[in-house]
Predict the 3D structure of the following.
Amino acid sequence: MRRPQVQITRRVTRKHGRAFAEAFEHYANASLALSNAFEDTHVLTWPEDVTLENMTLAHQYMNLEDDILDLTFAGARDAIAESFVKAAREVLDRERARRRANKGRT
């Protein structure tokens, strides 16, 4: 009797890579990971004593941060997608080879 196995795709494509990059950006933004990483760079300083009268400063900070992060991710999106495809192909090819080797032993 054959043991159950994790199912793997026949081929990892650029479509998989793009889906990963888009999901990565979405979840990174949703978790505030990108904002936290941006804050750690100290390229902008959050305005002191934000009040209703000077909320414009907070909005300016957030707009600048958003623009920088948008452009950063736009430049990284293709590299993330390509890296995902390369890594997934390598790992899944290795898994297929392991399965073939194990199949010959039974």
